[in-house]
Design brief:
single chain, mainly beta, Fumarylacetoacetate hydrolase, domain 2, 6-stranded mixed sheet, 3 helices, 17 strands, about 10% helix, globular, Fumarylacetoacetase-like_C, metal-binding
Length: about 240
């Protein structure tokens, strides 16, 4: 199932993507806690698709890899940087060059107390696409990633959560202006998604709607104003134009 949210006059509303349009559904996190899929909750509706979740926590994985002097690490990104696909993002002019980082994002379905690498899938609502936009030159002044990751709109997310894709074999593609720059996936990550989630959960409990960005060791590309980046995760297409 592909789940998302649309903006309505009454606030965001959960929907599923169907062949004939957008079908309202019940809260998927409540359903997940009960071991069920969300149920249809009305006839087809129309609306603007927005980011699929409002996470309280976004965790990034620094995929340092075997050649790096440090082990794989995690870091935090402000949830206020999240924006929907299709929304123009204004690149900062005071932060040096910009890099688009296409990543597989994991949406947590329930509190991660007890999560292990073996049971990680039991805590995941689904996966979606994320563009972890970065200003890497700022790392020379700020090694904690705050300045390099905190631009407004620097986390395009969505537009859909795929609840059936699993976490073990997820494809990832990145294009800039229609030109392929990366063809990779979860199997190419130096640290598996299961191990990433287990590492994070061992230090900090996550909850429904929180997001873990699983790293971009093979899916980065420099970008500038006027360019369009497409990130595909499990076939979900996230398109962002930069201005």
């Amino acid at each position: 199932m592909r789940l998302g949210r649309v903006a309505t006059t009454g606030g965001p509303r959960w929907v599923r993507q169907a062949a004939d349009g957008l079908i309202p559904v019940t809260d998927p996190f409540v359903a997940f806690a009960e071991g069920q899929e969300p149920e249809d909750a009305g006839p087809r509706i129309e609306g603007t698709v927005i980011a699929p979740v409002d996470p309280l926590v976004i965790v990034g994985i620094a995929q340092n890899g075997p050649a790096h002097v440090s082990p794989v690490q995690a870091w935090l990104k402000s949830p206020r940087t999240v924006t929907a696909g299709g929304v123009d993002v204004v690149l900062r002019r005071d932060a040096g060059g910009q890099v688009a980082e296409g990543e597989i994002a994991v949406v947590i379905g329930r509190p991660t107390r007890g999560l292990t690498a073996q049971t990680a899938h039991e805590y995941v609502l689904g996966v979606t696409a994320v563009n972890d936009l970065s200003s890497p030159e700022r790392a020379a002044f700020d090694p904690r990633n705050f300045e390099s990751k905190s631009g407004e709109g620097y986390t395009p997310l969505g537009p859909w959560i795929d609840t059936a894709a699993g976490i073990d074999d997820v494809r990832l593609q990145v294009e800039v202006d229609g030109r392929p720059v990366a063809e990779t996936g979860s199997r190419q990550l130096p640290m598996s998604i299961r191990d990433c989630l287990a590492y994070v959960a061992a230090w900090s409990r996550l909850g429904p709607g929180d997001v873990v960005m699983t790293g971009a060791p093979h899916s980065q590309a420099p970008v500038g104003p006027g360019q369009i980046v497409t990130v595909r995760v499990a076939g979900i297409e996230l398109v962002t134009a930069f201005v």
